[in-house]
Each structure stands twice: as C-alpha cells, then as structure tokens.
Predict the structure.
Amino acid sequence: MELGLTPATDQRWGKGAQVCFSTASCSLGLLLVAATPKGLCSVALGDSQEKLVAALRQDFPAANIHADDSHLQAWSASLLRHLVGQEPRLDLPLDIPATAFQWRVWQILRSINYGDTRSYSQVAEMMGQPQAVRAVARACATNPVALVVPCHRVVRSDGSLGGFRWGLERKQALLAQERQYL
C-alpha cells in the first residue's frame, strides 16, 4: 500500500482529476467503488445509488466524476468476493488522502485478520501510542475505503461496536459474515 495523496496536496486534489465509479448490489445494500488512475479513492456502503454518488461528489467537488463499470470490474469483483469469504485479504491499490498518523492506523487495521477484532486501545498500543485511543477512533471514522481498510474490525474495549461510518447495522453484519465464512 502506497501513500497516495498527502495533506499538502489534498486541498488542491480533485481539480481536473478523473474519478470513475461503479456500484453493485451486495448483502449489505449497495457497494460504491471509486478510483483515480492511481487506485481506489472511495469504497462506500449504502442503500441509495443517488446518495452514494452525491457523497462521492461532495468528497471530490472539483473532480470529473463518471460511471465506468468496465474499468472497475476487477476491483468490484474482488470486494464482492471478500464479502462472501472468498478473498479474505484485500491488496488493492489506494489513492487516498491521509496524514502519517492515519496511514499508520490504517496499515495496522489491514493487518487484522479476517474475522478478528481489536479494540481501539489495542490498535493504539500496537502503534506504540497507548494514549492515542481517540485519535485511532478518529482515523477509523475518516477511513474512505470500507473493507479495504477494515475499520469495522475495531471495537470498543468492552466489546461493543463503537461507531461505523456506514452504520452500526452494517458493522455488525460485516463482523457476523466474516465469522460465518471462517
């Protein structure tokens, strides 16, 4: 995984950029996959294609955004296989804005095995920054690529779900699906 966008370039990113997207039905509703020529920039879950595309346009207001199922077919298929346990580890190229801290958190999340969970405090400890629990939670909340960076595998210390950008019901369903396919 390579750091694509940096905070310094993030403010300008999107102007004239090409972002293509595709949506597919899955067990969790709809899956939106969006990419630049460098890699995935958004993987989102929702119930309405219109709302998913509107959120993508809000995230990349100056970009040229267009549907392109054929360009994203392989990545979409990989994500759909992941949801049914056929591809437990995703290694897809990313082009996402991130601070160095976010990137470290997301790398740790990608090391959590399919079907396993860690607490926010365990992730902070794995980073060598046990006091950074809230910052870890914030990095999870700002993750733009569901499934690829599996923030759904991070829960509270008491085992409760915590938050999830795409809804707690989806987080619970994702965790249950992963346990089912182990």
User: Anything to note?
Assistant: The first helix runs from residue 7 to 10. The radius of gyration is 16 Å. The mean pLDDT is 92. The chain has two domains: 7-83, 100-180.
